[in-house]
TrEMBL record:
Coiled coil: none annotated. Residues 1-25 form the signal peptide. It comes from the Bacteria. Keywords: Lipoprotein, Signal. Residues 26-124 form the Lipoprotein LPP20-like domain. It comes from Vibrio ostreae. This is LPP20 family lipoprotein.
Amino acid sequence: MLTIKRKLILGLCSLALLACQSTTAPDWYSAPPTNDPQYLTAVGQGLNLTQAKQSALSQINAQLWTQINSSFVSRDIVQSRNQSEHASSLIDNHVNSKTANITLTGIDYPQVAKNDIGYYVQAKVSRDTVVRQLRSEIEQSNRHAQAVLQQRQHQDALLWWLANRAQSEQAQAVAVRQAMLRALGQDDIPKAESIDQLASALAQVQSGIVIRVSASRKDQKSAELLAEQFSKQSLKTTFSGTPNTTHVLKLTSQLRQSTVGQAYISTQFTTLKLQGRNGNILASHEIISSGNSLTNYTFSKEGAERNFADTVSAQGLWTSLGIQ
């Protein structure tokens, strides 16, 4: 009987505690959003304060993209009515808003609340602050593109392209910021001509690279494998010298064979040397591969060749060539 009473008391205490818990969101969180001409505001909720702030910031980004996407409709109509302007198609019309969130600075959190299930915050940022940040980032990207273009004169074409090929994504990042400025009612949008020039230069350099893969007949399989890897990078290769050749990849190998018990062991030492147009060595690397067979050396050699292919695939083309 005492046990039943004890359980009853514990149950009543639990109900009392649940009744005392606060799960109601603050009034300002539930209030409808206002269209403030000076500030972008949003609210967020999370299990902790960091999650709540991130949620609010995501909502501010979403506000900008809602305005951008709605502005595309009228811009598309103008574009379709005048075919002569098609050459200057708007890159921001194809921006993926799901992956284009901007890390905004100058965020203030005037409202913060906590109850028994989480945190609530209100985030606020001045529209002028956002405009200044977007303009600054566009200008910085343009200056960086100018510096990269100047480096082109002093670097090998392939190495320059490798070091800066990711810069082509900057055109999209700049387009995102330009679109956001339009969404914020800005008419004087900063241009980034160097960004466009860099993207064009990268494409031009890539299309002009022709790599001759030089190898003896016994290394033909390895040479073909490397040619396939270059092709995946959208780079042209050839197995014979042509006037358009810009680089030479020399592949040489040594094969060592031995038996261990009943196993035939083949170990292949492959040296890769990448040379520029003038014969200067840009990179070199040695790959050691091996294979074994219980039948003969022919099968173990084929195993070493497959191991070479697996090594190149695992390391990646550029690491395999000695380019870090």
